[in-house]
């Protein structure tokens, strides 16, 4: 098995299935104790309104500092935690931590928290979120939950009920990674999402792929016709920003505006027109 370190993110390239399964089981066992050992950290990435340039909120992104492996990417350990069910406990830690930290920010900005489909399908989710907000003293309208379509397809009626309850509480819900997976017009039309996030893969290819650009345009048109604001993920340079501005995109997020960073550096976001 080859292990390579790209930036600070550890990736594994598995050769044998057996060894791979064994490795995963080992990683899952260590992951179980990561939170109590203080190995988790939340980073925050700014989201910008393109019309005014102001920061509308920050997305909380989980990091695992493994004592031996270094920084393990959420793309690796979130699926694992979903398999074992540990995502429920981890997700609750993320939600509580994000609410506690957001409460301490000098500005009353929104905090966006990713919810795994496994978490979303957990009975009593809405009550748990409500209880955590009360416990942390965070106003519900400062919380935005990011879910993917995977979370809603298995039980659409229940999902709709949850979304309505969140809406009634004042908690916002964004549809994450739109354009990948099970995206359907029906979902967009029947669920009261507060925001659509176009998956970063489209903007990252938009400059040299007419197809990717067409998808960005289509999602923007869709958002406009349904009156749902659209946020583009993965803005890495000025050219991509110009595309979004000329296509009338509402919000954007990406390395161009700021990498995910620990809470203390939140005060210094990059200006749109500087
Ligand atoms: P996501 O929710 O779609 O988050 C966006 C990902 O894109 C993040 O990766 C972010 O660091 C990355 N990103 C932001 N700007 C750019 C850019 O300009 N270019 C490129 N190439 N990438 C950019 P990250 O932090 O590695 O997270 C990956 C995924 O892991 C997230 O995708 C989300 O699905 C999941 N995840 C992260 N934190 C949590 C969490 O607390 N709970 C759950 N359930 N899932 C999480
Ligand atoms: Mg997200
Ligand atoms: Mg996303
Ligand atoms: Mg994603």
From TrEMBL:
Residues 24-274 form the EAL domain. This is Diguanylate cyclase. It comes from Novosphingobium indicum. The chain holds residues 519 to 792 of 792 of the full protein.
């Amino acid at each position: 098995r080859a292990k390579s370190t790209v930036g600070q993110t550890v990736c594994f390239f598995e050769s044998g299935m057996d060894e791979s399964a064994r490795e995963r089981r080992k990683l899952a066992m260590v992951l179980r104790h990561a939170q109590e050992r203080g190995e988790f950290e939340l980073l925050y990435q700014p989201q910008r309104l393109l019309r005014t340039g102001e920061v509308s909120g920050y997305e909380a992104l989980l990091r695992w500092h493994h004592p031996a492996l270094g920084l393990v990417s959420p793309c690796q350990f979130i699926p694992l935690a979903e398999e074992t069910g540990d995502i429920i406990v981890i997700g609750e830690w993320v939600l509580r931590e994000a609410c506690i930290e957001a409460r301490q920010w000098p500005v009353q900005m929104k905090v966006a928290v990713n919810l795994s489909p496994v978490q979303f399908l957990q009975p009593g989710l809405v009550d748990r979120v409500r209880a955590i907000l009360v416990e942390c003293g965070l106003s519900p309208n400062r919380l935005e939950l990011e879910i993917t379509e995977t979370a809603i397809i298995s039980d659409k009626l229940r999902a709709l009920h949850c979304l309505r309850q969140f809406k009634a509480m004042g908690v916002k819900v964004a549809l994450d990674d739109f354009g990948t997976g099970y995206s359907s017009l029906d979902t967009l039309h029947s669920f009261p999402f507060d925001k659509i996030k176009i998956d970063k893969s489209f903007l990252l290819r938009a400059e040299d792929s007419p197809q990717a650009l067409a998808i960005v345009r289509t999602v923007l048109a869709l958002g406009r016709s349904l009156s749902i604001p659209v946020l583009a993920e993965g803005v890495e340079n000025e050219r991509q920003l110009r595309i979004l501005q000329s296509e009338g995109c509402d919000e954007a997020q990406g390395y161009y505006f700021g990498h995910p960073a620990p809470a203390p550096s939140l005060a210094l976001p990059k200006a749109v027109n500087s």
